[in-house]
Design a protein that fits this description.
It contains 19 helices and 15 strands. By secondary structure, the chain is α/β, with parallel strands linked by helices.
Length: about 450
Amino acid sequence: MRVLWLCNIMLPMIAGKLGLPASCNEGWLTGLMESLQQNKEENGVEPGICFPVENIAGCSTEASAETGTGALPEDAGSVPGVRKLGHIEGMEAYGFSEDLRNPERYENALKDRLAWIVEDFKPDIVHCFGAEYAHTLAMTKVVPKEKILIGLQGLCTEIAKAYPADLPEHIQKRFLLRDVLRHDNIRLQQKKYVLRGEHETEAIKGAGHLAGRTAWDREVSHSMNPDAEYHILNETLRRVFYEKRWQREACMPHRIFFSQGNYPLKGLHYLLWAMPDILKKYPDTEIYVAGDNVTRYASVKEKLKIGSYGKYLRDEIVKYGLEEKVHFLGRLQAEDMCDAYLKSELFVSASALENSPNSVGEAMLLGMPVVSSAVGGVESLLTHEKEGLLFKKGDTAALAEEICRLFGDCRLAEELGAAARARAFVTHDAEKNYRQLLEIYRKIES
């Protein structure tokens, strides 16, 4: 059974062989591929993988004797923008050119590039990770729908509606210099999600099979394509989160971990709005945020580069006197990310919308107390008062109340964390998820 994966990133295991920087995102893809490859003799899956590469001409798989791949780049004949990278880490790998800076744009040339890859690899099944990418839509125009499995991720049609996340209207509409130069303020970012949602809807309509993991993504995708067969497929997360465990005595008291806050949908501003109420009871509370610091404003260059949302966050931080309370950690690889969770007393997800956020899953695997907005598919991951605490999106008083509740009740925090860990080890069971995937592939092939 030949299965071609269509991914939005180059897997770290491939990037390492090519001498290219690895993405911090989508670590669960690596876990899933490792499970497939470790059981290759039993499952009979011959994997291939293709992914967009911005600088396709710069890709080289010239291997050393140590790697033993012996693979060299091959041209794709008459089709520009495609490169066969060779047999890397047990799979045939292909790169194709795509405008990664403007994911809302669909290029007709993508269809020709993917058609060349499909003709070369000759898959029985094409597994597309994410319906919201232009390359997924292109693939549905190349391969018969009965051979296409789309793994549902964020669902941009719904993200577009939630994107402004209750920000003041004048903030949504304003243009700073960076926004003018990039033609990219908050409203225009929202419009891009609308366009991606249109491509996503068309792609879902062009697929015979959909893989999801929450009641929410099932309902939304069914409204787009009621004829597609829906398969349940949970995610296998990064290995380090299965190996370590949160301990209250080892964390910093009243330290909150927030996994990403560089755009409105993630809702960092909700947590900032909640901080005055939290600080009244726990004045030593601090927030640690993974990812880029979009609020930098020290140098002239940073002032010119700051976007409207980053400026808004900065202004709110100053307004509430949080300059010494909010810390940005930068982009973190898995080990450092795990360490940031473990150092914190609780994890907060305040997003305006999520399907099944990996950040919540990672916190649950570690056995951390979790406070999350009850949005999208989150309630398919945890039950309020059982494995975590939920609050209504945008209700910052409730957010503050739930955080203070966990700070003040060690026993409750530990009980919720233990229950979260037990549930997450079922949801994110690598062996079970691998078996689910294999069953889906066999069903499609038959």
